[in-house]
Specification:
mainly alpha; 2 domains; about 80% helix; single chain; disordered N terminus; about 190 residues
Length: about 190
């Protein structure tokens, strides 16, 4: 009866909306991670801005796909599939926790079934990547990532990014305390004891 009420009164459409938002957020996060690991190595010798509207050639897309594979983009894409499945499972679990065993089994099956869809993400990301670089630039990037220094960048850049994020988080916490103390002091001058 509860499930019928929720479906009948708009609960299912809200779930679809939330799932769409979750997918958008995850894809945005994935794009940000790719950008973080790729910004230092752009081969833009002429200084021209990338052209996202340019239609890349098939050869450029294949080169970009090789670059993304070398950079282990699949390690970023695979958790997206699991994340959406788990988020959806948890949503339905909140509707009726007694469905837990069945929902866990269905989620595990769906995760396995959808795991191959990371290839779609890789292809789409390759098309986007290829639209920002010319074919000669992609060839240079591929040669770089195949070099010893390129391999080191692939191995070390995510670690450096993680350490930078931890440092930024710690800095933000300290800065927040400073701002809070200053705000309290200023509010106290105005007669507000916080």
């Amino acid at each position: 009866m509860i499930a019928y009420f929720h479906i009948r009164h708009g609960f299912a459409p809200r779930m679809r909306m939330r799932a769409a938002i979750a997918r958008y957020v995850m894809v945005a996060l994935m794009a940000a991670l790719i950008a973080v690991t790729g910004t230092a190595d752009r081969a833009d010798a002429q200084g021209a801005a990338p052209n996202a509207t340019r239609q890349p050639s098939q050869a450029s897309i294949l080169l970009a796909k090789q670059i993304l594979q070398i950079k282990h983009a699949d390690n970023i894409f695979a958790p997206l599939i699991r994340g959406v499945v788990v988020k959806t499972r948890d949503f339905f679990m909140a509707t009726n926790f007694m469905w837990g065993k069945d929902l866990n089994e269905v989620a595990a099956n769906l995760e396995t079934q959808y795991s191959t869809r990371t290839g779609e993400l890789l292809s789409d990301a390759a098309r986007i990547y290829a639209s920002h670089f010319s074919e000669p630039e992609l060839k240079q990037l591929l040669a770089f990532y195949q070099s010893p220094l390129g391999q080191k960048v692939i191995a070390e850049e995510p670690k450096a990014a993680d350490e930078s994020m931890q440092m930024a988080s710690s800095w933000a916490d300290n800065f927040s305390e400073d701002v809070m103390a200053k705000m309290r002091a200023e509010m106290k001058k105005r007669g507000h004891d916080m």
